[in-house]
Structures are given as structure tokens and as C-alpha cells.
Amino acid sequence: MNALLRLPARNRELALIALALLITTAGFAAVQIARAEALSWSPLIAAALFAAAYLAAHVALRLYLPDADPYVLPITAVLAAIGLIEIHRIAPDLARDQGLWIALGLALFTAVAIAFRDIRRLESLRYTCGALAVALLLVTIIVGTEVNGARLWIRVAGLQIQPGEFAKILLVVFLAGYLRERREVLAAPARRVLGIGIPALRHALPLLILAGAALVLLVAMNDLGSSLLLFVIALAMIYVATGRLLYVGAGLGLFALGGLAALQIAPQVQTRIDGWLDPWSDEQGACCYQIAQSIYTIADGGVTGAGFGRGLILNDAGGTIIPYAQTDFIFSVIANEMGLAGAAAVILLYLLLAWRGFRIATQADDGFSKLLASGLAVAVAFQAFVIVGGVVRLLPLTGLTLPFVSYGGSSVTANFAIAALLLCISQRANRERG
Amino acid sequence: MNARISHLFGAVVVALVALIAMTTYWQVWARGSLEARQSNVRLVYRDLEIDRGAILTADGVVLADSVPGRLDGRDVFLRRYPEKGLAAQLVGYSSLLAGRAGLERSLDPELTGSTSDLAGVRNAFDRMRGDTVRGDDVVLRLVAAAQQTAMDRLREAGSAGSVVVLDPSNGGVLVMASTPTFDPNDGLAEALDAPGSPLLNRATQGLYPPGSTFKVVTAASALDNGVVEVSTEFPGGDCIETGGQELCNFNGEDPGEHDFGYALVHSVNTTMATVGIELGEERLEATMADFGFFRRIPWDYPADQNLASGIYNRRGNQVPPDANVDEARLAIGQERLLSTPLQMALVAAAVANGGQVVQPQAVQEVRAPDGSVTRRPQAVFLGRAMTTETAGELRLLMQQVVDEGTGAAADVEGLDVAGKTGTAETGEEGLNDAWFIGFAPASAPRYAIAVLVERTGGTGGDVAAPIAADVLRALSGS
Fold first, then answer.
1. Chain B within 8 Å of A335 (Cβ-Cβ)?
2. pLDDT tens, residue by residue, A277-333
3. Which of residues 210-249 of A touch B (CB under 8 A)?
4. Going by DSSP bridges, is the β-strand pair B233-234/B418-425 parallel, antiparallel, or unpaired?
5. Do the Cβ atoms of A103 and A53 come closer than 8 Å?
6. How much is the ipTM here?
7. If you measure CA to CA, which chain B residue comes closest to A337?
8. What angle do CA B233, B238, B241 make, to 5 degrees?
9. CB B345 within 8 A of CB B449
10. pLDDT tens digits, residue range A151-165?
11. Exactly one of B212, B267, B309, B339 is catalytic; which is it?
12. B19 in contact with A at a CB cutoff of 8 Å?
């Protein structure tokens, strides 16, 4: 172990990636054995593609970001591998797509790592990013298609894309740039009202507009999860920038009001709340079927789990017992087949990833990098919290993806871009520290 | 800023640890209680690995069996119901969609081979060796040919209804038909909220005013208690006054001076009501209890799919006995008295059986996979509802009902049928619940029958009695 730690960062990374690849291979083999199906090439091709893509990304890091954090990429590898194995177990066809998207995600990862190996380049693009984020969200609202009542998707050349996943990153970049610029004036109140410091309107206005826009999005997209995520990321970054809990409190209050309004307007939100409060009231009904099946599936796993490929996930029609098991409910499937041990491990991996993200933030020596790294770390960790919280009935259910694990091209590629940005920040901090 | 970043990380730690705590709660703490929930379809999924036993009729028709299939990468057995809606409510279903009901639920331990006797040990060995666990086959007393006749005739009658035939000597359920019906193979989802509630087993869950068929119970009580004899004379008249209201004979007829026997055969309301008043509520309700009223009839069918016959209030709740009802109206089967067809079949069976009330039995025998018989239920008697003498007197009177009274249409050539008709008003103009109860052959009864047709324009004699004749004909092969 000590020998491993003494290795230079990139060698350590390579060793950990090799370990992740071992898990991937073992997992695929376990599924094939458990399901007693004829050995087919498709999972082998997927595994090989997976390995090749990770090794390529690793080589790119050696060349362009040699001093960057060595743990981020292996953590994503384990998460992506677990997701890929469970998706393969649900439907081999989906795993082929997912393998492709992971490869695509790692290509994007490499491109971002090269393009922004000097992270200051991104800071100058902050307003472009902000405008792009708003444009993406507007496009979604205008030409988006509804899936299960939520308007989160657009169709481009036969592909379904979720622009919100990318808008989220662009928004974090914008906020990091904007807050670094204005954080002093925002932190220092211009005047006091009832003993509470209020910042000058012209500095706070863009943030108020942002908050308003997020609430509009909430209603327009009919999706509590995405808007809550965007809102919390923004509040977390404002807190890091200004240290003022007043903004956080006001923001959460605003969101609660928006949520209450959504409750009146969108019946779907009310249904989700009903299912959260009492999933047993109507187990076959719209409110509760998904969440009840999710809980049964999780509980069924017990401490050690059924084993890869050995759980009861598919129904007699060949579909999944829980609808959307490969996207929203992938965590329930993991908890079923890997048990509490595996489920806790997955959550701890997010904790580890968040820890690396926040560590990169504290080690960075400029405000933009600190804010950017914090925002990105919160984005991944809070997204995992909201969707897992939904399927374990800690929170009302929302339709978010589990980063790196859930099936879906937009989600997978966007999260790899986040990982790449974190490493770019890390490179600069580590190099300067020498 | 670094301090604030640490605070943020602290918040993330709290949030993610909460997730682990919640997951632990489901997987460790709540796991057992969730596994035991009947609404957990995983229970049904798990049992698919067992080669669930078949359900057959006495004449060898397969009502339910299991065929090999694949589910989520494993070999399983999927349930099939080759006869579709023939006895769908009695057999019930074992479904991934809706769980279990009917005999599929109550006989589940035998069908899955999980009874706690030798079969259990044998299956434990099979499981250890990785062999398929095979459940026992169940042969019912049901006669498919007669069941088919009952279903066909009920369907022709148009409205919903039920036919129950019991073997009075052992309680064997020879026919249990209920319409409308459903196809348990692929019609369950549709049936769950279809009009006419096809999932409802009207034989055990349908509550109807028994009308004049209940006069058999009143007569049994009156004769047994010495309130009247068959030859006791009663005056004529079209109506009497009771409880401040007029109580009249069917169509306001005046039978003239007549004896008690005539009053039963010709269903004279005024006389039966007068007898009811003399008998009093307490004694009449005691006889009812002996016949099985006021409680769920115990037999091999899920208890919650059996409703108790008795007196119900306007909110649909059962009123306990001795609740100060109008005994005159109770005696002629009114006064919010509601009965299931199975209960009325038991009344007929008790008369046929010399007064003994027999417990219904769906199962003729249970067979292990190797063909050996593991269980052959014996007849169980629930008690005596009347003396043998009273039963003999009622038998003669009920024969007259078919020979010369309202039940003429139930007559079957060469099968000496005894019976009683009933026509209960539903409260809707021109719509009655039509009844026929009876048994045959009168001298040595092999069949006790109850027929009910819901909400029909006709009377018990017009609508229900001919159905009884056809079903009895199918059973006796004449």
C-alpha cells in the first residue's frame, strides 16, 4: 500500500483504473454465469471498449494534465462500470449504447481536458457560458418533447438529448465567473433594512433574475428535480462566495414558494408528493406503483444482495418490474443485486468524489477555480442525493439521473465533462504548489 | 473561502449518510415486514420457480395448470387456465398483476407443496438438490359439464346471477357458477374495474334478499318449535297489518281458508308472517343461526371472499341477531335480510339431509406428483337445523311446490325434484331477484341447488326454476 502511495500521481491513477477494469470484467462474467445464457460477444466488446476508452483518457491526462488529482478518473470508472453491468443485466442492447456513450463521454473528457488545461481560459468565457445555458434551457422549453409530463428533452437527428445536463455545467461556469467578480460587493451590504444587510440592487439583480428563471423553468419544464438541483447549486456557490446564510435562506424560501405554486399548477407534482407521504395507500396507482416497487426491490437485496444477475428485476413481459429501472431507478437495482454493502459503497463513491472536488477547490489559489470546483462537486453530489433520496423515499421522487451510473447519453457525457473540469483546476493548483 | 467549502462538504456528508441510513432501514430493519406483504408481487414471482399443482374437476377437466417458461433469466412455471371463465371465481387466480384469490389462494400451501407434512420434507430435498419443487394436484368435486350448463343458462338469462349445487351427503361443491365471468389468463386487468364486477363470486360474496325461499327456514323453525303443524288451519284474506304497515299476498290474492302446508307450497305471505309473529324473533333467529346465517360459512375458500348472510342495515353493515326487527317481514324473507346463494343452497341441503347442515367442500382429493392421494376430505357436519321429522315434512311440501306449485318449471323427467321459488323485489320497478332452491331426487337426495338471477323481469318460477332443471338434468345425465 505504501509503495502504491509513493507512486507518482498518474501511476497511482493507472493502478486504480486497472482495479476498476478488473471489477468490470468480473461483473460482466458474473452476470453471464448467473443468467446461464450463451456467451455472447456484445458484453466483451462493451468491456473492451470501456477499457480502451479509459486507458486513452488516462494517456491524455499523462500528456496534458500530469499533476492533476489521480482519484477522480478511477472513481468515475467504478461508478460507470457498476452502471454498465446493471444496464447489461437489464437489457444487453442498452448496455451497447451505454458503452458507446461512456466512450463518447471520455472523448469529451479528453477534449475538455486539453482545451481548458489552463482553466483561466474558461473564466473569460463566463458570459458566453451563461448565455449558452439560458439558450439551451429556452430551446428545451420551446421545442422540447414531454416524457412523463416533464419537458426535459429535445430531438436532434433522431437522438434524444437532455440539454439541461449541459446547461447545468455552463451555469456553474457562469456563476463562478460572476461571483468571483462581484463577491465583495454582494458580501458587503449597501444598506440595512430592519437590521438586515441588503446588497445593492444592481449587483444582486442578475442573481434575482436567475432565481426567477429557475422558478419559471420549474413550472415550464414541470420538473421539480432539475430546478431544485440548479437552485441548490447556485445557492451553494453564493454561500461559498459571500458567506452569507441570508441569501441561502431567502433562496430556499423562494424555492419553497415556487414548489407550492407548482403543486397547485402541476398535478404530477402532487402525485409525487402523495407517493412519498404514503406509498402503500394505492400500490397499483399512479402515485405509488414506482416507489412501492422500488422499496420492495431495495429491501429484497438485504445486506449482501442477490448477486450480479441474480436479483428479480424483469417481469414476465420482459420489461422491468420497476419502470425506468435503467435510468431513474438504477440505484434500486444496484441495492437489490449488490445489497446494502454495494449500495453503501456506491454512495461512498459519490462522497469520495465530492471530497476530491472540494479538496481541489480548497487547494486552488484563485476565486474562480474555488467557486467552479465547489459548484461542480455540489452538482454531482446533490444530483446523486436527490435521485437516490427519491428512490429510497427520503425525498419525493424526481426524474434525475444518477451521475455516471444511469443509462443516458446526455447525463453520461455531461458528467465526464464535469470530471475533466475538476482535473483542469487540480492541474493548475498542483503544478503551482509544485 | 476554504472554511465555507468545508461547511459545504459537511452538508454533503450529512446528506449522503442520510441516504445510507435510509437504505439500511429498508434492507435490514423493514425487510421482513415488506417481504411478508401480500401486495408484494415478488411473493408471486418467487413461487413461479415451483411447478404449481394443477386444479382439475371431478370429471377430469383441467381448470388450472402450469407450463414451463422463462422469466428474468431463470426457468419458471407460468399459470394457465385452459377453461378460461368456466369457474373463474371459484378457482380464482395466481397472477403477477393481482396476486392471488379464490382456491388458488386458500389451497396455495398444497398447490406449492409447502404443507408442513412429508411433502414439505420431500420438497426441501428437491430444493437442496436443485430439482424443481412440484406442488400437489387438487381434484375438485366440481362437475365441469354441469358447471358449463349453469354458466350457459345464466348467460342466456342476460343479467348477473349464480348457481350453487352441493352434494348433501358430504357438502361437495358440484357446481358454483357466477356471471358475469372473466378470463384469468389475460382478462384480469380489464376485469379489475369492469362493470358488473366479474371478479365477485356471487355465490359467496353476493348478498340478495332471499324472498319466499326463506319461508323454508321459517317453516322449519315453526314446525320444530311446535308453533304450528302442517295441518294447522289459517283463515283467508289478502293482507294483514303489521308494524303499522300492510303486508299483502303476491298480487293481492286471497287464498281462502287453508292449512300451513298449503301456505308454504303456495307461498302465502299473510300466513307465514302470522306464524313469524307467533314464533318471535328470538326463536326464528336461533334457527337461522343453526342453518349457518350470521357468520361466514367455513369451507376451503378464502374467508374474506365469503360474506355472512344475515340482517344488514342501510349502510350495508350486518346487524347482530336480536336487534328488534319486524319478525313478520323477516319470516317472509324481507326486513333487509340478505343471503348468499351458497347459504340458500345449505338450507336446501339441510332439508335434503334430514336436518343436518353440512359444510361445503370444494376438494375431492389432493394428489402428490407421484399420483398418491395425500388428502381426501371427510364430510363435516356443522350441526342440526331441524329434527328429522320436520325435514321429512318439509320435503313432502317442497315436492308439492314442483309438482303443483310455483316451482313447476324445475321438474325433471325421472328425477323427482323438490324445491321452493322466491321473487324478491329490488326496489326498482319491474326488477326482481329471482330464486329457486331445492334438491333431487327427493327420496334420496344427491343434489341440493340454489339458483339466483339478479334484477330480472321474471319470477323465481319463470326464470330461476328452468335453470335449476337444466343443471340438475346435466348432473344426473337424464
1. yes
2. 998 887 777 788 889 999 999 999 999 998 888 888 887 777 888 888 898 999 999
3. 236, 239-241, 243
4. unpaired
5. yes
6. 0.93
7. B27
8. 90
9. yes
10. 677 777 677 788 889
11. B212
12. yes
